[in-house]
Each structure stands twice: as C-alpha cells, then as structure tokens.
C-alpha cells in the first residue's frame, strides 16, 4: 500500500518473517502481542527506504547490499537501552565489599583484572564498575580492563564518548559526581580520564556463540537486564558463552529480576551477605 494512502499494515506472514529473522540474528523475541509495536517502530525505516510494504522490507534485510547496516538500524529500533550509573546499588555494594577482595587475592601474583559488561548499552554500567574499582583502592598499578559490549553500534558510540546528562546520573551522589566526572556544560558531564583509561568498548552479539572460546577470559561478568529480552534457548546460548569466557571461579551478576532457575545448573549460587550472585565452579565443565 503506498504511503500517500496511509502507512502499510504488517500482515501476519510479514510479522512472522520479520520476527523470526530478528530472533535468529540477536535472540530478541518479539512476542505476538508486540506486532503493533514492531510495526510502529519499523514504519520510519520503510519510509526512509521508500518501501511500500513489510514484505519488501524483509527482502531488503535479507538480500540488499546494504542489509548489514539496515539490520543494525532495525535492531536499534526494536531494543531498549535503558541504563544509568550506579544502577542496583545493593548488588554493587556486595560486589565491591565481598567479591573484589576475593579477586584481589586471587589475582595478586599477575596483578591483572578483567571485567565484562555484557549488553552495556551507552556505557554507564562499564564506567560504574571502573569507578568501583577505583573507589576500592585495591587495583592501582594493576593491568585493569573493564570491557563493555553491545549489539547496538549507536549506543557504543555514545559509550566511547563518555558524556552524559541528568537521566544517566539519577542514582549518582553529589560526591560521586564530583569525584568521577568533569562538568562540560550545563547539565552535561564527562567521565574522568583515569576512569576512561580502564574501560574499552566493542561490538558483540551475545548470540554469537563462537566468540566465547576465542576471547580472553574475564574474572567477572555483569549481564544485567539483557536476558529478559530473550526466550529460553537464546538465554541458554548467552549463558554458555558467558560460562566459556569466565575463568573458573569467576562471577556472574544478573539484573534483579533475572535468575538462572530452569536455565542453567552449571553456575553455582553464591550467598554473599549483601546479595546473591552466580559463579562458574572451580572444577567441572558445562553440561549440555
Ligand atoms: C536494558 S539495556 C541494559 C544495560 C545495562 N546492562 C544495565 O543493566 O543498565 C539492554 C542492552 O542489551 C543489548 N542487547 C540486546 N540484545 C543483544 C545481543 N544479542 N547482543 C548484545 N547486546 C544485546 C541492547 O542493545 C541494550 O543496550
């Protein structure tokens, strides 16, 4: 249907094709009751490309020379990037007070620490972790890297820029603001250089399971508020690659509404005083 007679409806078959294509690429499950949300969010793409129905858009995503870039844009339109600094403070406190001392002892000989913020959005989580490391005073002079990864190149560009406004800072205290940020304009701050020096960002699709075994091992992974967008098989794929990336004894932190019940028995639950976290056991392997 041409645009001058209104925007095209997404029919059931087009929805199924697009939903399955998105799912196969990134594990994000667009539920049946989200058809209208998908339609609304993709309309601007049809308009931008001059396409008159969703079947043409599907073919574009599958076969056009520009399909990779367009897939990024489509995923962008369908994902949620909500995040902010010092999110879930109880968990962060438990991590700082009870996990970091363990990692310091364990890695004292190598003086190297690797953390991974998986699904880091615009970087607030990765920078927050670097701030906690700095705050602890335990890792000065160490080889430290907090790596943030995401499927969205747009949020990664923002993360690398490291500049934020009030919404990102809604849980940041005045003291933290003064310590870790430089004011660069009215309502605009920049993460300080010594924090940025510990943080890197890279593009990574968590459904890409090859990545797990070939990338360097990490001591702890924060994968918070990401699994909620996936169905069970997609969550299990992500957990397997996180497992492979973690050193034996390495920690996994999920979001507060997430847990591994009915998903994986391969991580052990660790009862910290302040929170529950998961850990890759020291011995044993992944059970398929
Ligand atoms: C709600 S944000 C969570 C940000 C941060 N972890 C937090 O808890 O504040 C979810 C992020 O997961 C990313 N994401 C979704 N599917 C992904 C995938 N297959 N691979 C990598 N990142 C993905 C989205 O782009 C989004 O930035």
What can be said about this structure in brief?
The protein has 288 residues and is α/β, with parallel strands linked by helices.
The tally of beta strands, per DSSP, is 10
How many discrete domains? 2
Average pLDDT number = 94
Looking at CATH, the homologous superfamily of the largest domain is Vaccinia Virus protein VP39
The string of secondary-structure elements, in order, is HHHHHEHEHEHEEHEHEHEEE
Q: What is CATH's topology name of the largest domain?
A: Rossmann fold
Gap from first CA to last CA? 48 Å
Helix content: 40-55%
**Main sheet: strand order:** 6-2-1-7-8-10-9
Largest sheet: 7 strands, mixed
The number of helices is 11
Note the beta-strand portion: 15-25%
Q: Please state the CA-atom Rg, rounded to the nearest Å.
A: 21 Å
- Shape descriptor: globular
**Molecules bound to protein:** S-adenosylmethionine
CATH hierarchy: architecture of the largest domain: 3-Layer(aba) Sandwich
Low-confidence sequence ranges: none
CATH class designation of the largest domain: Alpha Beta
Helix/strand structural class: alpha/beta
How would you sum up this structure, described in words?
This protein is of the alpha/beta class and 288 residues long. It folds into two domains: 3-78, Chemotaxis receptor methyltransferase CheR, N-terminal domain (Chemotaxis Receptor Methyltransferase Cher, domain 1, Orthogonal Bundle); 89-279, Rossmann fold (3-Layer(aba) Sandwich), CATH 3.40.50. It has helices at 12-26, 35-49, 54-63, 67-78, 89-106, 124-136, 153-161, 174-180, 193-196, 211-214, 232-245, and strands at 112-118, 143-150, 163-164, 181-185, 188-191, 199-203, 218-223, 246-254, 268-271, 276-279. The chain has a seven-stranded mixed beta sheet. Strands 3-5-4 form a three-stranded antiparallel beta sheet. It starts with 11 loop residues before the first helix and ends in a 9-residue tail after the last strand. The model has no long low-confidence stretch (mean pLDDT 94). Bound molecules: S-adenosylmethionine. The site of S-adenosylmethionine has 25 residues, from loops.
């Amino acid at each position: 249907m041409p645009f001058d007679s209104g925007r095209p409806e997404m029919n059931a078959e087009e929805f199924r094709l697009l939903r399955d294509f998105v799912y196969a690429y990134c594990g994000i499950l667009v539920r049946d009751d989200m058809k209208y949300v998908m339609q609304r969010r993709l309309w601007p793409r049809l308009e931008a490309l001059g396409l008159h129905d969703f079947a043409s858009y599907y073919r574009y995503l599958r076969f056009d020379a520009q399909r990779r870039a367009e897939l990024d844009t489509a995923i962008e339109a369908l994902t949620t990037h909500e995040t902010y600094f010092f999110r879930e403070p109880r968990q962060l406190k438990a991590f700082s007070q009870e996990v970091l001392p363990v990692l310091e002892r364990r890695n004292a000989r190598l003086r190297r620490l690797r953390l991974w913020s998986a699904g880091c959005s615009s970087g607030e989580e990765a920078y927050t972790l670097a701030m906690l490391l700095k705050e602890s005073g335990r890792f000065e002079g160490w080889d430290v890297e907090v790596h943030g990864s995401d499927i969205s190149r747009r949020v990664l560009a923002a993360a690398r820029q490291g500049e934020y406004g009030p919404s990102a800072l809604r849980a940041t205290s005045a003291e933290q603001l003064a310590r870790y940020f430089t004011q660069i304009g009215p309502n605009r701050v920049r993460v300080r250089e010594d924090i940025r020096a510990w943080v890197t960002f890279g593009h990574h699709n968590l459904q890409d399971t090859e990545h797990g075994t070939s990338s360097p091992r990490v001591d702890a992974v924060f994968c918070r508020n990401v699994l909620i967008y996936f169905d069970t098989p997609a969550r299990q794929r992500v957990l397997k690659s996180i497992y492979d990336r973690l050193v034996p004894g390495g920690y996994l932190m999920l979001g507060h509404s997430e847990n591994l019940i009915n998903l994986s028995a391969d991580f052990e639950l660790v009862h910290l005083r302040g929170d529950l976290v998961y850990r890759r056991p020291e011995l044993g392997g992944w059970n398929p």
